[in-house]
């Protein structure tokens, strides 16, 4: 519920053009790790299993860590909700 409120607040601020974007070097593995931990709370379906793999070398991008995290959480939530059922796994 808190994430939904944050997303709606972000949307309202972006429409009002009052959102501040903080760009910095971001190590994606760190954000993905946090998103996967939060993703455990998104797992409402017992037939969905997360099996993440990541490269050993850091993947660094230039961007806003909060917006990247938000985008990855939304993508993960959609993937979990829309994933087909596992038949024989």
Question: What's this, in brief?
Answer:
The protein contains 3 helices and 2 strands, in the order H-E-H-E-H. With 89 residues, the protein is mainly α.
Characterize the overall form: flat
Q: How many domains is the backbone divided into?
A: 1
Tell me the total number of β-strands: 2
Distance between the termini: 31 Å
- Main sheet makeup: 2 strands, antiparallel
Give an account of the 3D structure.
The protein has helices at residues 2-15, 28-42, 65-82; strands spanning 24-27, 60-63. The protein has 89 residues and is mainly alpha-helical. The mean pLDDT is 79. α2 (28-42) crosses α3. The protein has one domain (22-89). It is built from three helices and two strands, in the order αβαβα. The chain has a two-stranded antiparallel ribbon.
Sum up the structure in keywords.
flat, mainly alpha, 3 helices, single chain, 89 residues, 9% strand, two-stranded antiparallel ribbon
Topology:
Blueprint: H1 2-15, E1 24-27, H2 28-42, E2 60-63, H3 65-82
Helix pairs in contact: 2-3
């Amino acid at each position: 519920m808190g994430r939904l409120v944050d997303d709606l607040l972000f949307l309202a601020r972006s429409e009002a053009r009052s959102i501040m974007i903080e760009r910095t070097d971001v190590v994606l593995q760190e954000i993905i790790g946090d998103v996967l931990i939060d993703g455990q709370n998104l797992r409402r379906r017992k037939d969905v299993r997360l099996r993440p793999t990541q490269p050993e070398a850091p993947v660094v991008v230039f961007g806003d860590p909060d917006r990247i995290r938000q985008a990855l959480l939304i993508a993960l939530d959609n993937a979990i909700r829309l994933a087909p059922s596992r038949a024989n796994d």
